Amino acid sequence: MLNKPSQPDVSGPPDSGLWSVTNPFLQGPFEPLFNEIVVRDLEIVGKVPVELDGSLYRASSNQHARPESPEKFHWFDGDGMVHAFRIRDGKVSYCNRFVETDGLKLERAAGRPLYNGIYGATGKAQRDLPPGAPMIKSVANINVIALAGRVLAMHEVDSFYWHLDPDNLDTLGKFDFDGRFNSMLTAHPHFDPATNEMLAYGLNYQEMFVECMSFSPAGRVTSHVKTDMPIKAFVHDFIFTENYYIFFFGPLRVDPYGKDTVIQGNGALSFEADSPGRVLLIHRKSGAVKWLETRSFTCDHYLNAYELGDKIIVDATVTDTMIPGAHVNAAEFFPFPLVNEPSPFSGPQLWRLTIDLARDSVSTDRIGEFGAEFVRPNEGVMGRKHRYGYMAGTHAPAPDNRGFNCLIKHDYETGRTQFQHLCSAYEMLPGEPIYVARKDATAEDDGWILAVWYDPRRNASELVILAAQDFDGEPIARIKLDHRVPPGFHGNWIPRSALR
Ligand SMILES: [Fe+2]
Fold first, then answer.
1. Annotated binding residues for Fe cation, as ranges?
2. Where are its TM segments located (predicted)?
3. What is the pTM of this model?
4. How many CB atoms lie within 10 A of CB 416?
5. Domain residue extents for the chain
6. Distance between CA atoms of residues 318 and 44, nearest Å
7. How far is ligand 1, taken at its centre, from the CA of residue 110, in Å?
8. How many angstroms separate the alpha carbon of residue 278 from the centre of ligand 1?
9. Which of 96, 231, 382, 471 is the most exposed place for a label (fewest CB within 10 A)?
10. What is the pLDDT of residues 285-303, one digit of tens each?
11. Cα 236 to ligand 1 centroid, rounded to whole Å
């Protein structure tokens, strides 16, 4: 193992291993990892399929410097660290690196934190920044994708993505589409297998528009549509069908670049209890726009969507508002809180949303009784009817931290739900499950599920490979690390053949 401390910390590692004894986002599995580590040949229990030739890249939140207000630190504000599990010939190696964003480099150079978080409201105005510094800190902690043969890490407040070396994860620079977009680009682009395009959107809350675009595999823009946005809706993800880009807007508003929000220590979010939920459909080719109203809830992530006659079926995870009409300080109660505290929001749930284009209506149905997040499909069926959804979730007995305790496979055809807890004590904490199709697959679930799990007994993580058709059976491989991978958000399997 090569174990290289990262560049000197702004304030050094925490004395006691903790910066806060009360903030759950700085403790246990969430405690930051300061070392950049390379492991050549990981211990494998079981057998890694030799067909797998590529890397699982994961983005995680990993705060580098002691926050100015540790009690207010939010999980979403941690510096981005990317973890790569490289698989070839049945062997697995690993490395992790911070994404060297402008904000991280400036804080290192200054020897102290300079930026407020976007979500964790401190109530303290941000310090004066050096000339040319970005106004808010991009942390590139949300997702990692491949485009144009490159590995790109991403946040959702920039007009570019961060270009990483696929092997050692060095930050090589910004991938900015030649400066074409003047908007905050999503960290949730999706791939349309029917057209072989990447679809994405960008938001601009100074000029109040949303733009949607598609890209060829080489990263060239293949279409671009744009429309006005009447509200500063918080939008973290979108979904698409053959003909539409689809957005759901709930009660949250966001304005990271506002003069009274992040730089004043007030957080970027606000909560609008009295407004209806809205659905925005943008035609992919013509840019024609249709707005619908629905009851207000927050769509967190989308599994998939498809057209069925006059209807559009959308499967998603949703955070419901438990106290309709309540006025909530969103800076204190972000939905999806993984803490065991009273909250005006539900935990995340699996919902089916049906848009009826003939009646201009939206209906909602909750699926199952379990908690569910980080939904992923077999991406080969996106935009068309799917049968299966995979997700992280909570299932009885619920964990005490509102975190996850299982992976879930839901069969929309039969209604069957399967749970994988990995241990009978329900204490392992899984991350997002990534589906990887077997070459020449004969069914939608003929492939593997790759996910990183945290084991509190070892204070360490492991990559677990499940056969998707034996979802609740014994894993086919457990690949052990000696250190934890702090829980993060998203990532992707990138085959070696997809990289230059
Ligand atoms: Fe996300």
1. 188, 236, 301, 490
2. none
3. 0.95
4. 10
5. 2-498
6. 36
7. 31
8. 20
9. 231
10. 999 999 999 999 999 999 9
11. 6
